[in-house]
């Protein structure tokens, strides 16, 4: 049997993979100078933009593309030939989110690498490899490709975390992330093997049809739970969240931003595909579990964020809380339908990415001067650097959902509306309480920006960081003024 490959369908990850190879070759043959580090960053940025261009071109066709397809008989399905790689609306939105976020992260990386303490070639190569997996994952339509893509997202991040040589915290963070990822992969593979053994197919469309025939079999339920638990590690959902703060704090700030947005979006993409595409008929089984996980995750994240004095640790626990908000609509998939539930979750992810990346960009700027990077280091930032101070203040009020940062408010409204329509009033109440808790620590941090400081820190120049900051804040402002853009993207 021979397969025809649709190269237009796989163009975005292919462009990133070719750019990664080019960066590695340039790093070998070009002299190691500051100009070379900047050149490698620009090549990486160009590769990301080319990949984003292919995503936009695919969106303009208005067609669903598929490749790596097999005959239905071999896939255990009686319908159309299932494909392992499918480009549809869901794929395009998540791939666009990942690549747009990658533009900001690459610019942040150029600032992180400017001092020469981290090898630029290896950094950009590993970053591009992570992006290949992150773009491939939402297009994956079989369990094997899902696992491979998810590991391609995860494995390079271990090395990225540890690339800051002679830094004990970075090495510790890399080890913790490695252990957690290995455990989550083992758990997920066990669940995948059980589902495959009971249904005889790895394609998500085939699973959706075959699982109905074995409903009520305990092994299938165990398989579903294990797969969900595996993705729970990736998105730092309770009770798989303990690694987040230490890893975020020990990793370079651009890697923390990568984990907070790109890695999280990839984890949610895989979880959504498994639940809403492969197991929609089992929503009565996994829906209550997801609702409980959502409530616990947002509550634990917010309560732990209250105690933090480190800026990165606060953003880490805030990111855990945000995972709870994204999970909430998935709990009512069986009631309001997969399209509405997935749309609400993806809409929240899109808005969250912009405001969170803006905050991380300012944190990186301050971290270059303040080694401990505590909240007190941000006192008077609005007077020392008005652009950075106002940018961070806007992102924080966005995350809190307060005016003028209405993007965060709209994101929470999307989620709140979905769970109320789904009949989970108790989860809506939990979310409302957690939103109030979140207001406190975001407001306290924002207030410090406008409080005179006893000592003034001089911020170091970071030319590549200002475009990253400006891009993230500009997108957050646009979403605050025109939330309908997000609704149109996600199909709500």
Automatic annotation (TrEMBL):
Function: NDH-1 shuttles electrons from NADH, via FMN and iron-sulfur (Fe-S) centers, to quinones in the respiratory chain. The immediate electron acceptor for the enzyme in this species is believed to be a menaquinone. Couples the redox reaction to proton translocation (for every two electrons transferred, four hydrogen ions are translocated across the cytoplasmic membrane), and thus conserves the redox energy in a proton gradient.
GO annotation, cellular component aspect: endomembrane system; plasma membrane
EC number: 7.1.1.-
HAMAP family per record: NDH1_NuoN_1
Subcellular location: Cell membrane; Endomembrane system; Membrane
Protein known as: NADH-quinone oxidoreductase subunit N
Any one GO molecular function term: NADH dehydrogenase (ubiquinone) activity
Entry keyword set: Cell membrane, Membrane, NAD, Quinone, Translocase, Transmembrane, Transmembrane helix, Transport
Family per record: Belongs to the complex I subunit 2 family.
Family matches, as InterPro entries: NADH-Q_OxRdtase_suN/2, ND/Mrp_TM
Bilayer disposition of the protein: Multi-pass membrane protein
Superkingdom classification of source: Bacteria
Keyword Transport (UniProt): yes
Stretches assigned to the NADH:quinone oxidoreductase/Mrp antiporter transmembrane domain: 140-437
One Pfam entry name: Proton_antipo_M
Residue ranges crossing the lipid bilayer per the database entry: 6-26, 38-57, 89-108, 120-137, 143-163, 175-196, 216-243, 255-279, 285-305, 314-340, 346-367, 388-411, 423-443, 464-486
GO biological process: ATP synthesis coupled electron transport
Catalysed reactions, as listed in the record: a quinone + NADH + 5 H(+)(in) = a quinol + NAD(+) + 4 H(+)(out)
